[in-house]
Amino acid sequence: MKEEPHPSAWPDIEARLRDEAKRDAPEFPPFLHRRIMAAIHAEADKHTRPTAGLANVWRWVLAGGLASIALALALWPSPAPQRLSDAPQKVSEWIVLVANSDEQMASLITDRVLNDMVNNPYQQQLDSLGNELENALDFTLRMMPIELALR
Amino acid sequence: MAAPTQGQADSSREFGPTERDTARAEELALAIAAKKGCMESFEQLVARLEGRLYAFLYQKTSNHHLAQDLLQSTFVTAYRKLHRYNPQYAFTTWIYTIASRLAINHFRRKRLLESEHADGVTDTTPSSELIASEKAESVWSRARALLTGNQFAALWHFYGEDRNLAETADVMNKSVGSVKVLLHRARLKLAELLPTNDTH
Question: How does pLDDT run across A66-109, given as a tens digit for each residue?
Fold first, then answer.
């Protein structure tokens, strides 16, 4: 049979429980109520700001749009490299052709044809090639009879 | 064998003062108004309950700063979840439940952290040991160490907050019979482990 504690212990324990609860009751800090209410107001403000949520949505839409545009620009095939690669090849082809053709050599000397070849489309990139062409022309002219060059 | 003091103590407080019923009705009205969005009503509830809840949390934690943090978290959580409060139950029941759960969660997280970072080094200084021994002498400190959560809560609501059985049952959302069992078991444990001649 389980021995139960002596009943006389209980009034003592109960009295101690009540007395110590009153004696050890913590003093409520004066700042605590304001702190609690500030936290609650902050929580309330979080939920009464609908534009913040809306701004968040539009922010994501704008970011997505900008990202798409940047991606499209990055992946869009650039025509410049093709033209750049075409131009030197074309110029060298013309050099060869011109060197072997009298009539074409005569028309090449004109400013209009030379400008179309050299200045269009990229002036900077074709300047050096233009120089090469002029050198080739000079060489060819020196080799040709003077009557044809002056026609 | 039933303890004569237990029955006497309970019967003398079964019919509590009507002012407690009035207070409960007022709290219910404030809670319903707060649920509809009235901030002033919620502030009045905070003012009514913060003292009691603070003492309850301090007894649970024996730490002023922790009790303050938990008290703030309790009211913020209550405000955030006010739409879930059912006026069928007393507001004090609901808010004490929130406070208890926050305290339990805190100690669970603390135990997890301590077990992860356990390196065998114990921080004991003569002053901390003295404080620990002084605290251990308090019957409430011993109760906190010996009793389960529900037993301690029943003991606190009944003796610490001077509630009667019905009010204690109401706050804990339990039946009066369950509260009687909890109180009886709590008293038995304390009586076994506290010396009978240990009086101050």
Answer: 888 888 888 887 665 555 556 667 777 777 776 676 666 666 66
Range of the domain at B100: 21-114
pLDDT in the model for residue B1:
40
Do residues B108 and B158 share a domain?
no
Interface TM-score (ipTM) > 0.85: no
- B36-57 pLDDT, tens digit each: 999 999 999 999 999 999 999 9
Per the CB < 8 Å rule, is B159 touching A26? no
Dig out the tokens for B186 from the structure.
């709590």
CA distances from A23 to B4, B64, B160, B184 (A): 27, 16, 10, 24
Contact B4 A7 (CB under 8 A): yes
CA–CA gap between residue B146 and residue B144 (Å, rounded): 6
Q: Which amino acid is at B40?
A: E
Residues of chain B numbered 119-158 and touching chain A (CB < 8 Å) = 138-140, 143, 155-156
B94 and chain A: CB distance < 8 Å anywhere? no
Residue in B50, B160, B196 nearest the CB of A21: B160
Nearest to B10 by CA among B191, B167, B174, B194: B167
Q: Domain check: are B95 and B26 in the same one?
A: yes
Residues from chain B contacting residue A11 (CB–CB below 8 Å): 5
In this structure, is residue B14 part of a structural domain? no
